[in-house]
Amino acid sequence: MHSHTLDSWQHEHVFLGAAHERNERRTWAVVGLTTTMMVVEIAGGMFFGSMALLADGWHMSTHAGALAIAAFAYRYARRHAHDPRFAFGTGKLGDLAGFASAVVLALVALAIGWESALRFFQPVPIHYPEATAIAVAGLIVNLASAWLLGGDHAHGHAHDHDHGHDHGHDHRHDHHHDHHGHADHNMRAAFWHVMADALTSVLAIVGLLAAWAYGWTWLDPAVGILGAIVIAHWSWRLIRDAGAVLLDAAPDAALVQKIRARLERGHDSISDLHVWRLGPGHHGAIVALVVDHPQPVETYKARLSDIPGLSHVTVEVHQCHGKH
User: Fold this and answer.
1) For the CA atoms of the chain, what is the radius of gyration?
2) Domains of the chain
3) What is the per-residue pLDDT for 239?
4) How much is the pTM?
5) 198-227: per-residue pLDDT in tens?
């Protein structure tokens, strides 16, 4: 006989990404870079009388704000990771921040498209040397920021904890993961904000040089509209993916099928199955089984013990003789 205290059957619900703290530090660094470049562009626009630089500077301010949302989300999730008010931890806070940032990105695309369309009919004078120089500087900052945010892919570390709870809970962290289940939508949103800035800088440089050299003033608003379309596409993909996590959509059909294959043996059948994402690299599952000859809950949990990324499992067993 083994005696257990209540604490031995309890566990924490911390489902943050494996690289959470590293991503937080990098995001704050990019916030600093972006804010600095924003101030330079706004000051340069005012000093040189360039509306183009002013517009780009204020446009960059929206990205700085979105990146700050990402950074604060990392900090809040980390500080409240053990807060019992959050039933399944704060792992999905990054998805909420990513969704909000994606909406901001969509508004940025709309603003760029609208401003570009207006410039077809109401061209503005451009100070080509100054505008081009600062656009190049902006591109360098954006590429450095993209390198900081997207240089490495986070990998988890194996932490296997099978508590053998009679109430059917199982808490595991596994370093293996599928791509979609491991995606950090907060970091992804920050990365696409930086890439959107880089894209607009490249298009601005192309448009400025062409207009400066050949007098093709129409090219500046044309590339602006092209950039708006690309950014809108990035935004929609991020809204779709982060929104699915927030709505607890089943993250991976293959994961669901793997759970069924492990548990449905003989006459044993799953009557109810819920699988959802808890955070980057972490999934939860609630399973109701109908069986002829019930086994201990630990038996069914053991069948799922090596499934990658399945971090929190609840199993309930119902006895039912005959066909079911």
Assistant:
1) 25
2) 6-246 (1.20.1510.10), 253-319 (3.30.70.1350)
3) 92
4) 0.69
5) 887 788 788 778 877 877 777 777 877 887
